[in-house]
Amino acid sequence: MAIGNSVRLGRVVGGDGRSLIGTFAHGLLRGPLPGEGAAKDLGLMARQVSDLGLDAVMMSPGMLRASATDLAGRYGPGLIVCLEWNNAFRAGPSPSSDAEGRSAILGSVEDALSLGADGVITYMFLGWSDRDAEARHVAHNAALSLECERLGVVRIIETMIRGREVTREEELNADSVAMAARMAYEVGCDMVKVEWPGTAELLARVVEACPAPILVAGGSLTSAADVLAMASDALGAGAAGLVIGRNIVQATDRAALVRELRLLVHGTPITAQPSQPVAGH
Predict the structure, then answer these.
(1) Which domains does the chain have, with CATH numbers?
(2) Could you report the per-residue pLDDT of 230-245, keeping only the tens digit for each?
């Protein structure tokens, strides 16, 4: 492992090898979310909840530029840049007509470094009916992985099973999720982010199949109790961490949820305290 990668990984992952990451990149893929408040305050929100227990935050290049002042400082969170736009998640006003979605890379790893990034993340969709498009998609992931290795940047790949003829049941099939996670590892990354397949037993099969640490996505908006139950099951099945977005941003009590997630992931509360009340508390 390169020295730079080791140093940056230490900003994203705790000393216990686990990580709690908050994602604030939803605007890039979905636009504004109900309950998020003013977009100009998202950086402040991210810093406030980070002070309560997040190891790192994930943002688009644009939002990270706008949030630099809020996130800077000796005790700021690790920074992960989402380097890929994708239209598969857009609901309106002009929804994607292609269930497989199409992607655009937003910059280089060096561009991410210039923003202060410790790591970068992109999607790797598998299951496309257009096999050539799928191959190109994997190729751009591989190129970014090599660039991250050269520059010592933490590399995360988020895998999803997607395709015009793929059902939701097939998307969350444990064998398919395990296959995708393993392929992402083989392409080259430090961590793999996956969807929650539904049970601890199914996730354990994914963890067993992939040598890289597994991060589990928080998924669609649900109750705090459901988020915490999923988190407990995922960590019990061997997940190395959680990546929670909408369920933090849209939470009724963000502070309470992040504190509880922190205890599940690391077993101890964070020692730092937020400088001001957390929005949504």
Answers:
(1) 3-266 (3.20.20.70)
(2) 999 999 999 999 999 9
